[in-house]
Amino acid sequence: MKLAFLGTGAAEGIPGLWCTCARCQAARQEGSRSIRLRCMLLIDDRLLIDCGPDLVAASIRDNLDLSSVRTLLITHEHSDHLYLPNLEYRQTDFCPTPLPTLEVYGSAGAVGQIRAMPRGEEAMRLRTHVVSAFQTWEVDGYRVTAFRARHGGPSMEPLFFAIGDGHSSILYAHDTGPFPEETWEYLTRPPEGQRWSFDLVSIDMTSGLLDIVGQGHMTFRQIVEHRDRLASLGLLKPGARFFANHFSHNGNPTYRELTERLSVAGIEPAYDGLTLRL
Description:
Blueprint: E1 2-7, H1 22-30, E2 40-43, E3 47-49, H2 55-61, E4 71-73, H3 85-88, E5 102-106, H4 108-115, H5 121-124, E6 126-130, E7 136-139, E8 142-148, E9 159-164, E10 169-173, H6 181-188, E11 198-204, H7 220-232, E12 236-245, H8 255-263, E13 268-269, E14 275-277
Parallel strand pairs: 3-4, 4-5, 5-6, 10-11, 11-12, 12-13
Antiparallel strand pairs: 1-2, 1-14, 2-3, 7-8, 8-9, 9-10
């Protein structure tokens, strides 16, 4: 399984739009891995998690050909994770290239926004599927399970995903605060014949080094607690890699300092352009 982190920032990116705080100025000065587009992950060049407003920028930066993407998973309908014009650009008047039908999976709220678009699914060469927490399905050689996240208001059903290809599996958990107990219960006691053992976990650290109790996002202390709980439940393979991701300038320093702070706990900070194979 090939993973490409197209973006690793929270809603405002780093440096933050309009912002001249000390962290954003340090990121501008340090550049490189301290510069962060909004969160997206590309798997094997054909499965995309979220399609935020920086998808064009990431595809140009990394010289990506996205024409083979067949599956899109949407964590939730906030615009930094679902930017509808990206789907409009699949129309033949924007893109004459023949494209496979894009299978799009998300909550009723996320899918409802897509279905309300004026040109319709056929014109955008996609097909939508409403999924709920604790639902498992197979698509294009992957088994995907949606979990309930803790994020947004009561009308939203945020999700995060476990994805496996029969050889490797990952848990990609953004945006979320501390996992709901029903999510822990499902991780601990999955349906018969299904058992998770992750090669890699990428988890929300929007609130970073702040000394707060995160609800819709998590702090460094909270993700350490989640890593330890996942390990104690036997959900991490030996040598599994554990990444912090989805960084905001309101709680996170530059990449260099993050690496120093997180390494003592055996956690790696993801960065834009990071590509690895499991």
